[in-house]
Amino acid sequence: MGNPKGFIKVKRDKTAYRPVCERVKDYDRVFELRSDENCREQASRCMDCGTPFCHWGCPIGNYIPEWNDLVFGGYWARALELLEATNNLPEITGRVCPALCESACVLGINDEPVTIREDELAIIEHGFKHNLLKPQPPARRTGKQIAVVGSGPAGLSCAAQLNRAGHSVTVFEKDEKIGGIMRFGIPDFKLEKSILDRRIKLWQAEGITFQPGAYIQDKSALQKYDAVVLAGGSRQPRDLPIPGRQFGGIYFAMDYLTQSNRFVDGNKLSIDAKGKRVVVIGGGDTGSDCVGTANRQGAVCVVQIELLAKPGEKRPTNQPWPFYPNVLKTTSSHEEGSDRKWSIATKEFLGRGAQVTGLKCVQVDEKLKEIPGTEFILEADLVFLALGFLHPVHDKLLIDLKIEFDQRGNVKTDANFQTSAKGVFAAGDMRRGQSLIVWAISEGRKTARAVDTWLMGNSELPAI
Ligand SMILES: Cc1cc2nc3c(=O)[nH]c(=O)nc-3n(C[C@H](O)[C@H](O)[C@H](O)COP(=O)(O)OP(=O)(O)OC[C@H]3O[C@@H](n4cnc5c(N)ncnc54)[C@H](O)[C@@H]3O)c2cc1C
Ligand code: SF4
Which residue ranges does the record assign to the Dihydroprymidine dehydrogenase domain (predicted)? Predict the structure, then answer.
């Protein structure tokens, strides 16, 4: 602990954002990166706790107090080494992780927590800026061939770990570019895609083979591999089968975001909110991404509705520290303009001809029971359903491999991440259900160790 009084003297600095009126005109990054100096000062707030609950809160076991101390001392290269020991994609989690660690930070009990996520980001960006990240191909190859199907954070971190262990890894991806939801779900203004390309280039130099545009549909395509990892995500969207669902202008959020991300990458836009009244159903992060995208496209107005009650601004008593609490979250997209409504159920989509024109809604109580006399109509030209995902798409490949599913429809594995098909493993949202990037990384890393052990009898890859 470099500065024993840091947590008393230094206050948490808020993340700096570009002005709203400027940033809604483009898809560039909305926030400013912290300077090295500011980051050092913020890292000095870390108390180097004897029992670092931040570490407990982080699914990949990041060495948080250690790298905070190193950053404060100006030992950036050593901090980077420690960061890379537990996280294959810190430049992604540093940008979009909800930072479960910060909710568990001891300083957060009676002050604001340490800026752990931004400290992580500062370390990795310092590393790239100063050319500290070099390809590190394995010293020797094992001769084993592994196929990873799916290139989201689970598949990528699994591939990186397996390659590190000396196996020859090919990542298959059905989309035209690598990255999964990081590429086609999360908008550029939250996660610029050059960040992904930069990391993929490093991994290519380390020897991983990437095959985008390769939709694996039957097991014969995987026959030559010694082991297979399925990391296809959880992409079966939850629908809203109410009267009027057939009207045009009602889309799943992921379809809307995907075509918008492709547009930013130079393709044609097919769902354009320009001049339209937009309603987003679903109050979570995916809904918020739709809000930010619709505002950039020039929507006339954007309303976001949520079935559940408005969360409070403080931790609920049944979610005490160090747990991740359900509190009101106002994202940069919300700040750019949206009318948010809670405790609203949608009863019917209204339309003229084939096109949606509005939603018939009603207010509900805490038990989600309709409150009589509170019906109202929301006008809309475009509706986005951001209601989450049920489970992975049970596509041809899973059927052909005779993969068993759990009760929720996710791919079932044993404690070693192996599915019902011998030599076929599964990781990420496909296995655990819709979750977070940091959990996908955790799953990818653990699965890599399990595959390595299965192939070689033991593994030197880290257990978390
Ligand atoms: C819009 C949106 C925003 C989000 N924002 C955040 C956020 O800000 N922070 C956060 O932590 N989490 C966020 N999440 C959640 C997070 O993105 C996911 O939990 C994470 O991406 C899951 O990773 P994964 O590798 O399991 O799957 P995915 O990222 O879904 O990747 C799976 C990949 O497998 C490919 N695939 C599937 N089947 C095949 C096949 N047969 N052959 C070849 N390829 C195949 C798919 O095309 C896809 O590219 C968000 C989710 C969404 C939908
Ligand atoms: S819990 Fe907070 S203050 Fe304690 S070591 Fe972790 S980051 Fe530092």
Answer: 24-125
User: Is residue 101 assigned to a domain?
Assistant: yes
The one-letter amino acid at 454: W
Q: In total, how many domains does the chain have?
A: 3
In a domain, 172, yes or no: yes
- Ligand lying nearest the CA atom of residue 230: 1
- Angle between helical axes of 36-43 and 116-129 (0-180°, round to 10): 140
186 lines ligand 1 (CB under 6 A): yes
CB of 94 shorter than 6 A to ligand 1: no
CA dihedral (43, 197, 128, 88) in degrees, to 10, reads 50
Of 82, 98, 129, which residue sits at a domain end? 129
pLDDT digits 0-9 by tens, 265-294:
999 999 999 999 999 999 999 999 999 999
Is the pTM value of this prediction over 0.85? Answer: yes
Please indicate whether residue 382, judged by its CB atom, sits closer than 6 Å to ligand 2.
Answer: no
Residue 274 lies in a domain: yes
Structural tokens at position 253: 């959020």
**Spatial distance between the Cα atoms of 401 and 397, rounded to a whole number of angstroms:** 6
Tokens of 397: 């490949």
Tens digit of pLDDT for each residue in 156-188? Answer: 999 999 999 999 999 999 999 999 999 999 999
Q: Are residues 216 and 261 in the same domain?
A: no
Do residues 363 and 403 both lie within one domain? no
Structural domain including 360 reads: 250-385
Ligand 1 atom nearest 214 alpha carbon: 43
Considering just the CA atoms, what is the radius of gyration of the chain in Å?
23
Residue 252: beta bridge partners? 385
Ligand 1 pocket member 175 (CB < 6 A)? yes
